[in-house]
Amino acid sequence: MSRPMFDEMNASPSEVRAHYLKYARWLSEQPEEVMLSRREEAEMIFRRVGITFAVYGAKDEDGSGTERLIPFDLIPRVIPAHEWRRMEEGLVQRVTALNRFIHDVYHDQEIIKAGIIPADQIFQNAQFRPEMMGVDVPQQIYSHISGIDIVRAPVPGGDGTEAEYYVLEDNLRVPSGVSYMLEDRKMMMRLFPELFTENRVAPVAHYPDLLLETLRAVSPATTAEPTVVVLTPGMYNSAYFEHAFLAQQMGVELVEGQDLFVKDNFVYMRTTRGPKRVDVIYRRVDDDFLDPLVFRPNSTLGCAGLLSAYRAGNVAICNAIGTGVADDKSIYPYVPKMIDFYLGQKPILNNVPTFMGRDPEDLKYILAHLKDLVVKEVHGAGGYGMLVGPAATAAEIEEFRQAVVAKPEGYIAQPTLSLSTCPTYVKSGIAPRHIDLRPFVLSGKEVQMVPGGLTRVALKEGSLVVNSSQGGGTKDTWILEN
What we know:
Circularly permuted ATP-grasp type 2 domain-containing protein; UCP005522; CP_ATPgrasp_2
């Protein structure tokens, strides 16, 4: 039985939704050859600028690793102002509660004492960092940059005419993708400037300014001009383009671990004019590689002594070490309870209903309904380590069954949501493809964000996996101002 679909642009084959009317009228007047040439122009420019990402484990014919262009779609995803305002309120609420939770985990652990989250869910979590116990971070903010994945799906039991937004995942460690949001907008404005005079689209170009303001706000230094750097693992990292792009846009230095050193519990950057003190590190390096004296001793990506300087309060690290304890998929089901516990509020944005393998009753349900569920490894990411039951073969389902039985606490499961679709250019023409949205939430003196985020699109027909590593593409996201 086919599930009802919610189309972001079309209420029915003959009716366009009100917020898409101007765009749909414009699109209907565009000759096919013009749109085709614009697609080719966009691809050429993205290649020239170097907007690519590395795919780990993939190989070209000559055996070398592959760098791929993330496909860019010309048809934007449009969200009306009132829907965005509600989503923004929900994002502020959620990220505020998550930051309160991480602080609590590393301090008083009130949520554990209250019996809301089992202690072993935290202490046995691979992302829990005992080294952070009792460490006071600036303004008690741990996730300064949060990427919250949001999907839209038809209301359960409905006919597909109404849909709700759900949070699918919280990315609180080193969320990526914001550079594509910014470059997609620049590309649309370059290719179709007339669209931005006809439609009042909220701007996103000030994101680097907001990011720099957020990073400076948590500086421990008394100087009015704190020194901020972006720490990258290097040019072979899949998101290196983004690291370099954001450093350049903020006007700060892009550094690697070898460019930094610690002396007397302060962090310094090597420069041609001698050492310069660093106040804030926007790190794009995972916890394990940050300090070889504390974490992986063979890591060359971090800086020896960094944790000591951090614990002494002499440098801010964004996002904080140990933040990943809150974005684990096994913690996700508890976020609505966190919102109630820390803020005394009901969630504005709902979670997707989630079954936990660690719960005996949930486990029975998961094993009995594998063919209907999306099953995920709690530590999986990037679209890997998951089973999409309705699209899986009997052999794949059986293989996953054995994995879940062997380690039930390592898995969660969710109903297969019929993600909303948006018209998308594919080889056969314009066709509906499933999408999600990743807004980027900044937490400094206040919680703020630019209107919109990165819309990712699953380009394979019927696919629900939007990740770029799995063949997904991106679209510009328009938040209308009226």
